[in-house]
Design brief:
42% of the residues are buried. The protein has helices at 3-19, 29-35, 52-61, 71-74, 79-90, 106-116, 129-132, 152-160, 169-173, 179-182, 188-195, 206-226, 230-245, 253-260, 264-276, 309-327, and strands at 41-45, 66-70, 94-98, 120-125, 143-146, 280-285, 295-298, 333-334, 346-350, 353-361, 376-382, 392-393. It folds into two domains: 3-146, P-loop containing nucleotide triphosphate hydrolases (Rossmann fold, 3-Layer(aba) Sandwich); 152-399, Winged helix-like DNA-binding domain superfamily/Winged helix DNA-binding domain (Arc Repressor Mutant, subunit A). Strand 3 (94-98), helix 6 and strand 4 (120-125) form a beta-alpha-beta unit. It is α/β, with parallel strands linked by helices. The protein has a seven-stranded mixed sheet with strand order 7-6-8-9-10-11-12, sandwiched between helices. Helix 5 (79-90) runs parallel beside helix 6, helix 12 packs across helix 13 (230-245) and helix 14 crosses helix 15 (264-276).
């Protein structure tokens, strides 16, 4: 890379470090990433709009031997040569690369840097597909860190500067929460409507921005890595729209195939791509004697691009529950009776405890729990159910 380009990129790196100082609050994941800097390579993967760029610049601002670069400004240079010059000529020890997936053959370049240079690299991507399926098997060299939107607990911190202790599922089951956990319930609807995205803190029209993000993911991010034809890009868009407008109970491979006009194999492939682009959460049934069709939930708040809040609320509750559990690393399965009987919504496990979970409004009953002896049962209800012995508030999942 020419010296002129190096000079320009140094200027941009310094500007990024200075401008980020106006964002003093840091995501909870910030300290976790700093703890793993000795891993050499860290990949921060997450949806567009969750604050990966802010996080990377904050790390750069706190490390004088670091260099921040966005692939949007890098140009046609060779990444290995660039890292070599920074390390040998300028004493750079940490290279922070934003949206690396837009650099062609980045995986081969990173492998070469890993093998031959003593440079730590933290890089971000909005699409997990390219990293998990890298032909150079980067996952053996890179610590993958998922960065999600705000949890409800984190949303409270960014909105009101209050840090609340986290809860486990066992804590919730044993009602170990405090009055301090409960007092923030009034913010929950605001959170569901888009508050979980950091851009909500800057008075943006969240849904307007989310529409633009959705368009970029489907038209730009996914096609880059899935090698799709233009007509397939349109079909993925139709698949997502069908999922968003339907209820979760009506979504399976057959329904997508029938309504979008694609094969069941294509329906499965498109769902996989949409999940790896952080747009949907696909859950499979628990058990061995049930048909292995998925239950598909959307990532918040994309459902609100197609339905108003009151109309979407029933599905939004399940979207929220599954997203909270996935954010914290739980394996989530939906429950389905082979005879079609009513069951609770989900099954999860925490250590040696097995939980069956029902999600709904205040009016939900407990008939569906009767065949689940030996399981810990939790009913999460949306609304003021603090004094109800059978239910716990849904928003408590946001403290996991």
């Amino acid at each position: 890379m020419q010296a002129k380009n190096i000079k320009q990129l140094f200027e941009l790196s310094e500007i990024a470090k200075k401008r980020i100082l106006k964002y003093p609050k840091k995501r909870f994941i910030y300290e976790d990433i700093l703890k793993h800097k000795d891993k050499r390579f860290i990949s921060v993967i997450g949806p567009r709009g969750v604050g990966k760029t802010v996080l990377l610049r904050q790390i750069a601002a706190g490390d004088k031997s670091s260099f921040y670069v966005s692939m949007d400004t890098f140009g046609e240079g060779n990444l290995f040569d660039f890292a070599k010059v920074l390390s040998e000529n300028y004493g750079i020890k940490s290279l922070l690369i934003d949206e690396i997936h837009f650099f062609k053959n980045y995986d081969a370049e990173l492998k070469k840097i890993f093998d031959f240079l003593e440079v730590n690299i933290i890089f971000t991507s909005s699409v997990s597909l390219s990293l998990y399926e890298s032909s150079y098997d980067l996952s053996r060299r890179v610590k993958l860190v998922n960065m999600f939107p705000f949890t409800f607990r984190e949303y409270i911190y960014f909105k009101d500067s209050v840090k609340i202790n986290p809860l486990s599922m066992t804590d919730i089951f044993n009602r170990k929460w405090t009055k301090n956990h409960l007092k923030w319930m009034y913010l929950f609807d605001e959170y569901l409507k888009g508050g979980l995205y950091p851009l909500s803190m800057e008075n943006f029209d969240v849904l307007d921005v989310m529409k633009n993000i959705l368009d970029k993911i489907i038209s730009k991010d996914i096609p880059i890595f899935a090698n799709l034809r233009m007509e397939e890009v349109d079909l993925i868009g139709k698949t997502f729209k069908f999922i968003a407008r339907a209820t979760a109970e009506d979504i399976n491979y057959s329904a997508i195939s029938r309504n979008v006009g694609i094969t069941k194999h294509k329906a499965q492939q498109y769902l996989d791509l949409l999940q790896k682009a952080f747009l949907v959460n696909v859950t499979m049934p628990y058990g061995t004697n049930v048909l292995k069709e998925p239950k598909v939930l959307l990532s918040l708040p994309f459902r609100l691009l197609y339905k108003n809040y009151d109309e979407a609320l029933g599905s939004l509750r399940e979207d929220f529950a599954v997203e909270c559990l996935r954010m914290r690393g739980y394996d989530v399965f939906y429950l389905k009776s082979p005879r079609g009987a009513k069951t609770p919504d989900f099954f999860i496990q925490e250590s040696d405890r097995k939980f069956v979970v029902e999600v709904g409004g205040k009016g939900k009953g407990r008939k569906q729990f009767k065949d689940f002896k030996g399981y810990d049962k939790i009913m999460f209800a949306h609304g003021d159910v603090i004094d109800d012995k059978l239910k716990v508030p849904l928003f408590l999942l946001g403290y996991l």
